[in-house]
## 1
Amino acid sequence: MHHPAIMPRSNVTLAFVAALAAVVLAGCSGNTKRLSEARTQVRGVCISQLGAPYRYGGHARTGFDAGGLVHFCYREAGYEIPTYPEGQLRAGQPIEYSAIERGDILFFRLRQQALGGDERLHSGVYVGDAKMIHSSADRDEVVSDPINTSYWEERLVAVVKILP
């Protein structure tokens, strides 16, 4: 017979495992909440830049090119990523288009007339509701566009996730 204030070893182990699981799960829900907040923050920064001027090589409020806008939105949310679309593509984890979430980055091959007709990699941030925000050289400003059009679907190269 054992003392009632002393738990048998198997109960102590079980209690420890249960307590550890509770701590781990609580930490996971906090991470999920922080990630959700990060995605919301990236989206909010993008929305706040709608109408900002296009500027080749720009990555500040005075003007953005496509990669510069994506870089700026992530930096403002506390995440440092490369400035140019090629680096952003390499920095992210490729995902299926069907798995896209707010804050993920879309990449397209565009022939930009405003930049001499060269084909370039173009990036934009998915903000939900089948829309992205990007800096358009042809329209000379930061804009929101639906991504479920044949124009964008035909030019889509990749979707990457920066925020896990």
## 2
Amino acid sequence: MKQTFDEENKVITIETPGGYKITISDEEKEIRLTDQKGSVIKMNEHGIVLESKGDLVLKAQKNITMESGMATTIKAKTNLKSEAMNVETKAKVNLKMQGTASTELSADGHTVVKGAVVMIN
């Protein structure tokens, strides 16, 4: 176990022999937790960053709520999937869904399309 106290830069570091590390830095204005594979939890004046070298899993016995004061962006390099008993998406102004190669809307039961004006093609 290694503990480092840098009085000049106001940094405290704790490292384990297995490669786990906690750094608290007044100089960087940051708290950083790092594992042996390089995954990081970083908290600073810009926010919180979770960076995983493997999978990142969020689990809750009850609800998970995500809320932002501005925009929320979700990006995936391959597939983005969601699954639930019911899925509801609501836009307060405009909802746009677009597929570059193809788009499919289907249901085993009724399919309802409503609007003041419904345009197809």
## 3
Amino acid sequence: MANQQRNEAGFTLIEVLMAMAIFSLIGVASLKLAGTATQSAAQVAAKTEASIVAENALVDALLEPGTLTRGEEKRSVRNFEQTWQLRQSVETTGQANVLRIRIAATGQAPYAAAQAVGFKVLERQQ
């Protein structure tokens, strides 16, 4: 009986606990990474929407017939199922017939802000 050989297959309790701890750490790290990726995607989406709103407002200003009023103007627009605050600034440039138009769009979501800049060439009066 003293020379009895134990030939049992399987893992010890310590080995099972260590494996569970390692897999738990991997799971927690994966969840954290997924949360960060989701947050980053939401920020990129908000920034992209803000850029589109600013670009659309700039195109509207460039296509507007007549002369733009120099100075700053604030207004709001509805787009992407939210209200955006627009700040439009029209400035003169070094050339008398060229105006610089800056549009800043700010949304309700964090990181939902963008700016677009364009130039409008005015017809020369004779």
